[in-house]
Amino acid sequence: MPSPAASSPFDQSRYQVRLDWGRAGLERLAAADVVVVVDVLSTGSPSAAADVAAAAAASGSLVLRGGLRNAAAVADAVLAEQQRRATRTSIAVIAVGDPGGGDGALRVAVEDLLGAGAVVDALSLRGIDHTAPEAAAACESFRGLRGAVRHLLTASGSGQELVAADRRDEALAAAELDADTVVPVFRDGVFADA
Predict the structure, then answer these.
(1) Superkingdom of the source (predicted)?
(2) Gyration radius from the chain CA atoms
(3) Do 85 and 57 contact (CB within 8 A), yes or no?
């Protein structure tokens, strides 16, 4: 993921915490030390998440998988990485979204917006809060809708796909905030528990 040759108003380079959508969003952002890939309900996007992660890893970024279930753990891992580096660490939060119905268009997935917002919120609570407007908007969406996350995940398009496939429990499990303390790290082409 090469950094844009010239600074762009869309690269969010002046902010520590950045947010964009999908592979194109990763490429649009300035290079980051840490990339957090958010794919809350992987109904149609596991390959999209792997593609984003592989592109981020190729740039030398530390690539973590985050979302609602491990937002606090991800923030702790980012803070530890910043302390290890002993310098301000740039973070790109990439909401994977849904590649759509085969037409190649990215669908903004509410579950990934909320998951990205949860990660940004957890970072903010740890003092990593110099956020781009895009990241701040996702954070406030999560904060404002926190009490409705379970309903929103099951009512979303991806959630309805799971419900129709008799997998509602997966959507409900994905909505459990900070239920996991594990932060998967992308290594050798796959996410593995750290």
Answers:
(1) Bacteria
(2) 15
(3) no
